[in-house]
Amino acid sequence: MDPSRSDVVILGGGVIGLACALYLLKSGASVRVLEQGLPGSGSSHGNCGTITPSHAGPLTMPGMVGTALRSLLRRDAPLYVNPRPDPERARWLLGFARRCTWADYRRAGEARGVLLARSRALLGELVASEGLDCEFETVGELYVYRDRRTLDADRAHVDLLRDLGMDVRPLHGDDAMAQEPCLREGVVGGLLHPGDARLRPHRYVAELARRVRELGGAIETGARIDAFVNEGSRVSHVRTAGGVFSGDRVVMALGAWSPLLGRLLDVRLPMQPGKGYSLTWDTPPVRAPHHSLVLREASVCVTPWASGYRLGSTMEFSGFDESLNPVRIEALRRGAAAYLHEPEGQGEAVPWWGWRPMSVDEVPIIGPSGRWSNLTYATAHGMLGISMSAATGELVASLLAGPAPTLDPTPYSPSRFGL
Mean pLDDT, to the nearest integer, of 245-261? Predict the structure, then answer.
């Protein structure tokens, strides 16, 4: 028996790759995960850790192109597009702009909503049945507004969620502040999403990795992918810095790195990295919120845990730039300070950035490749990798090992891009 061979080789040890590995192992397949660093060291690590069916609405909505253009000269804008010339990014932005219609918003929102709702239902079961110690809490999320125009503009968001059968509860300003005394005066309204939840993302990923190993899966760390060996239309071997591995099936779950590695397989994935930032404290403020919060006008997310506190969000399209922009970190602080009596945690703040894998239509790419007979994609989850992880793992395991998928895989199929 070849020890370097398994039924399934998974490229990427972030939250999506590990969720796929866990569900495949539970389906009876042997699995090997190839990770260039440590499990969860990419965008799975420093994100806000919210489980948010409420985020079904995509960025592709009318008016978003104007918002992006106005941000070109504002490095602290919640949505920032770096004006530096970049042909790949320009092509992606044009494709994104063509999809900023109400019809595309609706189509993408429905696809995302179904995946998010299924994942939310699975996550509670997964945490309990697998004994995942990750501070999972079903506390809901509160959107907070200080400008009535922004609240009115979010009517499409409310309509979409209600049509998807999700619970959305509008609150008057006084009611929102009564629910969250941490809020400063000036709140004009809120939207409570009681179905949302949260967890500590790095602990969730570590627990997934633990269960993968306990169930017999192999996780190769330091396994940077250098090349693929192909036989006809099959990917026969994956060459890495840690060795050469093979499998009957290969799953690409590389997040933002997917388009870079895709080029080695002559595949052009319609994706761009969307850089997000966060600030984390080990100790929350004395007047920490109960719910997770979205401070809408500032586009800042607030996540309190028993073991910490995080401000996060923002979206920056700067290609694969690896620098941390202090202007954007300061924007998180400033945005939170406008809404909260105690906007920061206690002690020293740890800044972080990570690349989110953004597809051109804001819908994940999940399913079999049309180019390579044994390759399956599980990528392009944007800002929702944690939220969509369980349903993606279940769907990939169903596609590769059966039984028939619970969800209709068609909306996520790579075939919509000719992949």
Answer: 96
